[in-house]
From TrEMBL:
Belongs to the short-chain dehydrogenases/reductases (SDR) family. Keywords: Oxidoreductase. This is NAD(P)-dependent dehydrogenase (Short-subunit alcohol dehydrogenase family). It holds the Pfam family adh_short_C2. One of its GO terms (molecular function) is oxidoreductase activity. InterPro entries: KR_dom, NAD(P)-bd_dom_sf, Sc_DH/Rdtase_CS, SDR_fam. Residues 7-191 form the Ketoreductase domain. Gene3D superfamilies: NAD(P)-binding Rossmann-like Domain (3.40.50.720). The lineage of its organism: Bacteria, Bacillati, Actinomycetota, Actinomycetes, Streptosporangiales.
Length: 255
């Protein structure tokens, strides 16, 4: 029996990168997984098919999270499918992973880019949780995917780092508010991870790969599965006494 057997999970941004690795890890651990995505139907279909091929259960849930009303749209899509796949409604684990992964520097950032960053990275998780509380079972889990950029001075992407700092504050307050229900809330903070977001400057560039690896005490570039393993732990019963924490998953960057 898997560590998440009988659980129902929603993973936003689950069609690629870290979100995909989390969704697939949850599926192997026995959870029924709602895989959130915005536009790429082919990508989410591939993830769902992979989970099912491995013996798991999953279904896609579409919503473009930068828009007002997107949280309600996401939950409506989830509600329409979950009972058919899980045999019951409600959710046990919410993973807020969907995000815009970079930002312009201070001199170049526009107000529109700033607003979009905070809409996707901060407002969307806030209202997904707000509107999910009636669905989230007591003893459940919320995991927010933050970033090492929230604790490191990285002026070139300070707006992005600011959104993740806000997400960590959200985590802290949620943990306090939801503790009486036995719900734990934690953040994970990755460093540089080999995903599509970083592919343009990282993959196939030996100098960039060497630089990224040098930032980690472990001497390599992070992989999506490195993050997914920690998220799976936080979603499991083994993490029942851990809440309100930001878990560094940068491979020891900045030590």
């Amino acid at each position: 029996m898997g560590a998440l057997e009988g659980k129902v999970a929603l993973v936003t941004g689950g069609s690629r990168g870290i979100g995909r690795a989390i969704a697939e890890r949850f599926g192997r651990a026995g959870a029924v997984v709602g895989v959130g995505f915005a536009r790429n139907q082919a990508a989410v279909d591939e993830v769902v098919a992979r989970i099912r091929k491995d013996g798991g259960r999953a279904f896609p849930v579409q919503a473009e999270l930068g828009r007002r009303g997107a949280a309600a749209e996401l939950w409506a899509g989830f509600d329409a499918e979950v009972e058919r796949h899980a045999g019951r409604g409600g959710v046990d684990v919410i993973v807020n992973n969907a995000a815009i992964g970079r930002s312009s520097d201070l001199e170049s950032l526009t107000e529109d880019e700033f607003d979009e960053l905070f809409a996707v990275n901060v407002r969307a998780p806030f209202f997904i949780v707000q509107q999910g509380l009636g669905r989230l079972r007591d003893g459940g889990r919320i995991v927010n995917v933050s970033s090492g950029a929230a604790r490191l001075a990285l002026p070139d992407i300070m707006a992005y780092g600011s959104t993740k700092g806000a997400l960590d504050t959200f985590t802290l307050n949620l943990a306090k508010q939801l503790g009486p229900r036995g719900i734990t809330v934690n953040s994970v903070a990755p460093g540089i991870v080999d995903t599509d977001t970083n592919a343009g400057w990282l993959r196939g560039n030996p100098e960039a790969e060497a630089y990224a690896a040098s930032l980690s005490a472990l001497g390599r570039v992070g992989q999506p599965e490195d993050i997914a393993g920690v998220v799976a732990f936080l979603a499991s019963d083994d993490a029942r006494w851990m809440t309100g924490r930001v878990v560094d998953v940068t491979g020891g960057a900045g030590l």
